[in-house]
Write a structure and sequence with these properties.
Layout: E1 7-11, H1 13-20, H2 27-38, E2 40-45, H3 46-51, H4 60-64, E3 68-71, H5 79-97, H6 116-127, E4 132-134, H7 138-150, E5 157-159, H8 161-166, H9 176-183
Parallel strand pairs: 1-2, 1-4, 2-3, 4-5
Amino acid sequence: MASDDSMKALIDTDFLTHIADVKSVDPLQAFQHYCEDAKVDVSMHERVYSEEAMSFPATEQFFSCGIVAISRFIATLTLFEKELYKRYINYLFSSYKNIPYPFEDVFEGWQKQCSFGEIHSMALCILHSYSLFLSDDKDSQRIHIIAKKNFEGKSIRVLNRKSAIDSIESYSSLTRAERRALSHI
């Protein structure tokens, strides 16, 4: 894990599966180097983990060795935070898709291929002040624009793999092969 002065980063399934699929270098070691160099503590939204990431066995190793944590936050939310989170989900979804959120309870329903992971992750970034959202999905950038325009004071950066690796100084512990493997899109 990174040090006390670390930024909090949320990771999306697509970003993590692309890292896990790297064959030319050890993906665990390379991503650990990235986390240390970027000074980020990386976690994944608990629903994104259970609804999406668990169906990709190669990603499990990142959780089991502690490189990526699961953000188990839902049970700890206050009533006020639950209402805020619901508001963020409903607003981001309806603004992005131009239709109402399809489930009455945002903590229960889930649909694949509808940007639910990106929307739930962005809502969590806003609610718990995450600095970074690591996502290779283009929808994340569009959802981020909606969030940025409508939730002032929330400075979240959305980075795809190339941008994330490029954001690290050249003196990083990542080898050239690791940089190339992790950032190849």
